[in-house]
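Exam revision sheet. Question 4 asks you to relate a sequence to its structure. Input first:
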Amino acid sequence: MNLDQQVREKYYDRIDIAQLAASILVFFLSFIWIGLTSLAAFGQVTTDYGTTVAFEPGTLIGLALTGLVFLVIAFVSIVTTIQKITGQAKILKPAEEKAIIWSIAGFLLVLGLAALAGLASPQIKTIAFAILAVPGIAIPVFWLLRFGSRDQKELNPKRNSGILTFSIGVSTPFILLVEALVIIILMIVLMSGLIGKPEFMELINAILNDPELLQNDPARLFSELETMINLSSLMGWLLLILAGIMPLIEELFKTLGVWLLKVRNPDPAESFRVGLLCGGGFALFEGLLSVSSLQSSSIEFSEWAGLILGRFGGSLLHILTGGIIGLAIGKFWQDHKFGPLLLAYLAAWLLHGIWNALAIFGGVNPLINETQMQAIWPYMGLVVLFVGMLLAFLRLIKKARITMDMPVYPTQMGG
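Answer key, structure tokens:
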């Protein structure tokens, strides 16, 4: 080797290689997602009973734009990871006040445009609502993430996009798979007691003959189920699944990205920020898909705005619980005390469960109660809980601020 030949410094580790591989995978899966959604716009589904079900234009537009959001995030992760590997990593100076102000202004603009679209024809309204739902979900998520990290001296686009990509493409699909398996097992247990009842089989056949019955006439389905299962048992099953098991699974696995960064030896403040990103990725995935699936030509602006504002609360929930657990993981690595970590997981699970329980009662009460006060109390509870979560979020940010002196580069948390 010549004496003047320089030995190149190694700028990357196995975490960077894993991020690049995962980002490339998510990028191509998102591209395939967009292509399949576009093809679905030209077709329809024929059931075994001869009926055809056409895809709602709003749903297809929403799903395609959701895939585009995921694709862009993965692309940013790919580019910034390559820059890190080649020794050209970039650090951005945060424009805190401007970013927060522009985010609020953008969200209000989205609501204003949606209100105007509500006055247009059904076709234009459907398309406009589907398009505006994407920034309506995404802006609050990124605003909360930026607000939660507003004391960070420098922005790390590689880490941020990488954690979001991991959450969107790995941990969240894994969570959904585990939830699906658990729900299938519980449904088998529930169905085993109903399968012999003729009225239950008639209801199943009615749903198979007319799948839109699930969306168009939920009150009828609920009343028929109530004749087969007593109300307390039905509510018990709903609460067990949606307010117990599902929040537990999500909080256990949502912050996998924090645990994987143990090799970088992050301090509690850094673990807190990574936890926020893990929660933000989950909120983005869940919010975009849930709103896209509910887009229809009959939706009005008040319903659309309710969905968007409701998802704002859901996004705050996921980001807050991600931050709670992320901060606790960072402290656990420092002091090796398991008790506070366990309490953090328990607090996140209980908070998530209470939110879901109130949402369940809000959806079910109009079907079983005639008085307006009985139907509205769960939503009042959600508003109170939302305010409480905002205050807890501010408190958590203040608590994490004490260890925010660690620079981004060239430490182990440089990517």
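Marking note for examiners. The chain has a mean pLDDT of 82.
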